[in-house]
Every structure is written in C-alpha cells, then in structure tokens.
C-alpha cells in the first residue's frame, strides 16, 4: 500500500531517483509557487522543516536515506507497484530462512511441530509490516542472518562456511540494518551483551572465532556513519538523529502510555500480548523446564533465544519514543523478537524430542502442542480480519483519490485544513498540487498565491470529525495542525459544490466570474 509512512518513502525514492543521490530537499511539486515550503502538506514525524532543525536543507524527509537508494533499482525495473511486492517477497524469504534454520541448524524432526511452526512463521504478525512499502522486512533479514551466522561460527561444529571473505561481506552488509531502522541497534547490542554473559565474558575467544564478520560489521558501521556525516552533517542520519532527540525528550508518562498500548493494544491497534503472548509463555516454560525432575540442563541456544526474544520485546518497547502505528502495524518494531521466540520454541521441542523419558516429557509435548495450535488459531483469526480491513482502507482511499482526480485535468490544487488528511494523499501528490493551510490567515495568503498564478479553482479537503490523538505528536502540534478547526474564508474564489464522503468534507471552489 502507498499511504501514510509508505507514501513518504515513495516520495523520497522519486526525489533521489530523479534528482540525484545528493538531492535531499523534500520533493514538493508546489515549490514553484511556494519556494519557502510554507504550505508544504507534511510535517513531523514525516518531515523536518524550519531553521534549527535542518540537515543542510530547509526541508528533509525523515525516512532512511540508504533504504531509498537501495530501492531505486527495484523502482526502475518494476515501478511503484513493484515496491510492495518486493517487500512481500522479502517477507517470504525471511520466513524460509527462519524455517531453514529450524530444519538444518536446530534439527527439529517432528513433522507435526515443524508444520505448526511453519504456519506460525508464515502467518505471524511480521506479515503486517510487509503489506506496505517498508524498510522493516529488509532490516529484519539482515539482522537475523547476521545473528544466525555469528552463533553458528561460535559453536563447536559450524555448519556455515568459515571463509574470511564470506564473514567480511556478511558483516558489512548487515551493518546497514541499524541505518534502516534505529531499533536494530538495540537488537544487535542486546544480542552481543547477552552472548558475552552466557559465554562467561570470554571476549577474546569469541572475537577470534568471529573476527572477520566483526571486522566487516565495524567497517560497514563506520562507512555508513561517514556517509551520513558527509550528506547530513550527522553520523546517525536524519531518522537516527531525530529518534535520539525524541527519546531524550520523551517524558515518563508518555512512555508509559506507549508501552501500555504496545502490549495491551487499544481501540486503534493490535497489542503484542494478543498477537505473540503465547510464544512468550512457551519461551518462559523453555527456561523453567530443567527445574522439573530428571530434565536435562539448559542448552546455550535455548537460553539465548528465549531470553533474547523476551528481553528484546520489553527493551525495544521501552526505548522506542514512537507509537509504531495503528491497526495491525503497531508491532513492527518487534518483528525480530517474533522470529526469535519461534526459534526458541523449535529448540525446546528439539530437546523434548531427544529426551529419553517419554512418560515425563509427554505433558510438556502436549502443552507445547496446545500453545502452538492456539497460536495458529489466533493468527488465522487476525489474518481473517486483516485483509478485509486493508481492502476497505484501500477502497476508501481510491474513492477519495478519484474525487481529487476530477480536478486534475483543470489543474485544481487540493488544500488541506490539517495534517490528519495527509496520510491519504498517496500518489496524487505527484500529479496534483497539495497544500496545507492550518488557519484563516494561511488560507487567505494561499488563495492570493493561487489567484496570482491563475489557478481556476481548488478542492478544499478535511476530516469533519474529532481526530484521534497520536502519541507521536506533541499537544501543540495536535492542537495547531491536526485537530485545528476554522471557517474557511473564501477569497477570490466561490464555493460551487460541497459533499461528504467517508466522513471527509470535499468542497470545490472556482474563481469568481468563471464558469
């Protein structure tokens, strides 16, 4: 889907593919009549504009620079619709990589349990991230493959190639993942710290085993940091710098609200406990089962993947300064954690398979089977509601876009009264002028500009109800640019039609004296 966050990434892709790799200024078709970006239709958290916030430009989109560059070849070959399909393809690749790891590295033999895990992996909540044009799927693949390789190379009998060039290349490629999504820094740091603890801080033997991969990773981190510094004046890039600032400025009360909504969900989005809580339960059981009589001690793999999966969910949710999104997109920050919990379940089942006392392990096998079947059932219910919902959202968006398109041939711009409407602009942004006027003064000034530039009319568009509060925005931004209300002062133009579609008001204005 090309809306909300995905549309900004798409504009950024067009910006670099058409203007060059150093063209960082926000793509803005209306800048020929609004060179100062005063009526630019996007604001925080999608774009940063204004003095004091600049990255050598008066307006920059916040999304990852390197992801836009990586997408240019895909866009050149397949166009806009290929972008979403590539993300879905990468999601399937991730699923097969995880299932291949379970089969080849974990060694789980049970056809029943492998089938249940396969269904869970393929239909799990990470699919909701892949349903739109996003960097998440690519970042998840890079981090998982990096972790798989490092853990394998540290084992007594590695199954992957130990050729130095493979380690260097893999480490270098994986290093870009944190520049795609900031939370990947948390995953990689947590994985490294946990593995050191579980290996009794044997730092030098671990470094020696993984030296080429770590060298490649550190070279990549430095390379991309220097590239960011050259392009944006900051080693973290636009998104990384903004995220650090937002985290340091986020109050405890706001963070608690974000954490609560992440785990429990709310009226606008799915909660983690509903989508992945059963896997956490299985992860906890895998940690506790050696306490029962005659059970073997933990394997390093179970301890690592279970603790890492559970801790990463908690830490990422605590440290993220953002609401990850509404509807089914609210869990995308923890896609890596989901796969880690599935791998934990695989290792747990593998050890149950290889334990001699069938009578004692039977209860655990039955328990694990119930948990996995219940997880499959929950995921099927969620998917059953997800796809119809996305279809309705897309149909509604197309319905609204078609209304704007009526004025495309006449060169009628669209004026938005608030930022809430901006998530629906989509590909229309490339074919029509879109402007934002948040109060009467801006509305008057914008009409003066349109009149002087001989525009025959415009569409005025806004949501006519109460806008839900977004925890990503400040109270000031919400009041001034999202939930703002004012009577539009017609100037040089007169109202010729007024209708309501899907809760949105669409008014058409034409220049006074023209038919």
From TrEMBL:
Keywords carried by this UniProt record: Membrane, Transmembrane, Transmembrane helix
Residues passing through the membrane, by range: 74-99, 111-128, 134-151, 163-180, 186-205, 212-230, 271-290, 302-322, 328-350, 362-378
Keyword ATP-binding carried by entry: no
InterPro entries, per database record: LA3751_2-like
Source superkingdom: Bacteria
Name of the protein in question: Glycosyltransferase RgtA/B/C/D-like domain-containing protein
Organism: Leptospira kobayashii
Species lineage: Bacteria, Pseudomonadati, Spirochaetota, Spirochaetia, Leptospirales
């Amino acid at each position: 889907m090309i809306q909300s966050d995905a549309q900004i990434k798409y504009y950024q892709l067009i910006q670099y593919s058409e203007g060059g790799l150093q063209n960082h200024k926000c793509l803005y078709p209306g800048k020929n009549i609004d060179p100062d970006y005063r009526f630019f239709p996007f604001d925080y958290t999608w774009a940063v504009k204004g003095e004091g916030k600049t990255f050598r430009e008066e307006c920059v989109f916040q999304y990852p620079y390197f992801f836009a560059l990586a997408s240019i070849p895909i866009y050149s070959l397949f166009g806009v619709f290929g972008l979403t399909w590539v993300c879905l393809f990468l999601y399937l690749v991730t699923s097969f990589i995880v299932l291949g790891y379970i089969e080849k590295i974990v060694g789980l033999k049970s056809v029943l349990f492998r089938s249940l895990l396969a269904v869970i992996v393929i239909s799990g909540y990470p699919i909701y991230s892949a349903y739109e044009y996003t960097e998440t799927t690519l970042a998840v693949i890079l981090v998982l493959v990096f972790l798989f390789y490092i853990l394998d190379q540290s084992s007594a009998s590695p199954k992957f190639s130990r050729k130095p060039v493979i380690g260097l290349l893999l480490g270098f490629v994986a290093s870009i993942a944190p520049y795609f999504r900031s939370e990947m820094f948390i995953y990689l740091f947590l994985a490294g710290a946990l593995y050191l603890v579980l290996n009794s801080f044997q730092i030098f033997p671990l470094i020696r085993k993984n030296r080429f991969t770590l060298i490649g990773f550190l070279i990549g981190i430095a390379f991309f940091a220097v590239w960011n510094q050259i392009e944006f004046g900051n080693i973290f890039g636009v998104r990384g710098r903004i995220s650090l600032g937002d985290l340091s400025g986020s109050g405890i009360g706001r963070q608690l609200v974000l954490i609560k909504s992440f785990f429990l969900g709310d009226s606008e989005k799915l909660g983690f406990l509903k989508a992945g809580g059963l896997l956490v339960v299985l992860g906890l059981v895998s940690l506790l089962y050696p306490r029962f009589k005659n059970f073997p001690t933990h394997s390093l793999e179970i301890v690592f993947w279970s603790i890492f999966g559970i801790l990463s969910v908690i830490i990422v949710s605590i440290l993220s300064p953002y609401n990850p999104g509404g509807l089914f997109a609210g869990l995308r920050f923890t896609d890596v954690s989901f796969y880690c919990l599935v791998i934990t379940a695989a290792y747990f089942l593998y050890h149950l398979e290889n334990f001699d006392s069938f009578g004692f392990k039977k209860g655990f096998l039955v328990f694990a089977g119930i948990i996995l079947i219940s997880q499959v059932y929950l995921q099927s219910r969620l998917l059953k509601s997800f796809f119809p919902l996305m279809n309705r959202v897309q149909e509604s968006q197309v319905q609204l876009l078609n209304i704007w398109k009526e004025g495309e041939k006449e060169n009628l711009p669209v004026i938005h009264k608030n930022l809430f409407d901006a998530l629906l602009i989509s590909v229309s942004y490339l074919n029509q002028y879109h402007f934002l006027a948040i109060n009467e003064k801006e509305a008057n000034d914008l009409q003066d500009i349109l009149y002087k530039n001989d525009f025959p009319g415009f569409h005025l568009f806004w949501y006519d109800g109460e806008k839900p509060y977004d925890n990503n925005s400040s109270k000031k931004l919400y009041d001034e640019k999202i939930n703002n209300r004012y009577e539009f002062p017609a100037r040089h133009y007169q109202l010729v039609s007024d209708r309501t579609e899907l809760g949105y008001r669409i008014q058409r204005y034409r220049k006074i004296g023209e038919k």
